[in-house]
Automatic annotation (TrEMBL):
Residues 12-80 form the HTH gntR-type domain. SUPFAM superfamilies: Winged helix' DNA-binding domain. Keywords: DNA-binding, Transcription, Transcription regulation. It comes from the Bacteria. InterPro entries: Tscrpt_reg_HTH_GntR, WH-like_DNA-bd_sf, WH_DNA-bd_sf. Gene3D superfamilies: Winged helix-like DNA-binding domain superfamily/Winged helix DNA-binding domain (1.10.10.10). PROSITE patterns: HTH_GNTR. GO terms for molecular function: DNA binding; DNA-binding transcription factor activity. This is Transcriptional regulator, GntR family.
Amino acid sequence: MIEFHLDGRSGVSPYQQVVQQVKNALRLGLLREGDQLPTVKDVVGQLAINPNTVLKAYRELEHEGLVAARPGRGTFVTRTLTDHSLAAHGPLRQDLRRWLAKARRAGLDDDSIEALFLTTFRAAAQEDIA
C-alpha cells in the first residue's frame, strides 16, 4: 500500500502531490491493477489534510481512468502506467543512489541536488528534441 507524504515547500498543492505520488507508484510498479488505495479517512489521519483534498485527488485519478471507487469498499487501481521495463529500474536506482551519495559528499543539499537534476534532465530532454 502506498504511503503519502506532503512537501509544504514544493509550491504544489496537496491534492496534486497525492495525484503525482499515485502516478509515480503506478509508473514504478509499486501499485498494480486491483490494489487498493488508502481510504480517505486514513490519508486524512496520516497527512492532517481536509478530506475534500483527498477526494479531489482520487476523483482526478478516477477521471483519468487509473482508479475506480467502489462504494463501501474503497478506491482500487484499474490500470498501471508501467512501461514494461521494470527490470531496468533496479540497476538504474543503484546508479542514482551512488550519484546522490556523490552529490552529498560534494556538499550539495537536497534543494541543490533537485535543482541540478531537474535542470540537467530538462536540458537533456531539449537535446533529444533537437
